[in-house]
């Protein structure tokens, strides 16, 4: 688990790539610049860890492209202490970014293999989510609601209603919606049954699967 000057230099280059692609939030850029992404990947991918690309992490899942992680994190507008629900823990890289932003993170993963691996791994790097849960992300986490933000890190064919209902008034759900290609969509809760919806272009994600594995 080494993090060298070379890695730090590569991270800085990655931050510059993200700035050039339009990411403006300093806290998000600082988090990407600080978190050793190479440690979240198989060693065979070390050379690729700081390219702006998604990579496989096992269980047919991927570690998201850094730009996508930064883009979703920026949309959430996280303030320290915000309660954030993450659907799809995966490698834990997005979880670490949320922790770095000062969020209280509740994260659900449906692949047992990834859940076990990430639950052990994140604390070793000093990232402690409030709760890491093995379960079905479609149903959210009613017992910890409401949340200031909900982030979905897999492509959803539709928007799961429980995720909308578990938002605080003023809270945001950031979710890629669609089958083959997803449209990054943000819902902001304006009232009990009132939501603003905004769309932010096309992205590609692995599918959000129901039930657990």
Helix tally equals: 6
Radius of gyration: 16 Å
Uncertain spans, ≥5 residues at pLDDT below 50? none
Q: SS-based structural class?
A: alpha/beta
Largest sheet: 7 strands, mixed
> Overall pLDDT, averaged?
92
Name the helix and strand elements from N-terminus to C-terminus, one letter apiece: HHEEHEHEHEEHEEE
Shape: globular
Helix fraction, binned, reads 25-40%
Q: Within the largest sheet, what's the order of strands? A: 5-4-3-6-7-8-9
* Separation, N- and C-terminal Cα atoms: 29 Å
Subcellular location: Cytoplasm
Keywords: Cytoplasm, Methyltransferase, S-adenosyl-L-methionine, Transferase
EC number: 2.1.1.77
Organism: Algibacter aquimarinus
How would you describe what is shown here?
- The structure is a single chain.
- The protein is of the alpha/beta class.
- It has helices spanning 5-20, 26-34, 66-76, 93-100, 112-124, 161-165, and strands spanning 55-58, 61-63, 83-87, 104-109, 131-134, 147-152, 167-177, 182-189, 195-203.
- Strands 5-4-3-6-7-8-9 form a 7-stranded mixed sheet.
- Strand 4 (104-109), helix 5 and strand 5 form a beta-alpha-beta unit.
- The protein is globular and about 50 Å long.
- Catalyzes the methyl esterification of L-isoaspartyl residues in peptides and proteins that result from spontaneous decomposition of normal L-aspartyl and L-asparaginyl residues. It plays a role in the repair and/or degradation of damaged proteins.
- It comes from Algibacter aquimarinus.
- Pfam families: PCMT.
- Belongs to the methyltransferase superfamily. L-isoaspartyl/D-aspartyl protein methyltransferase family.
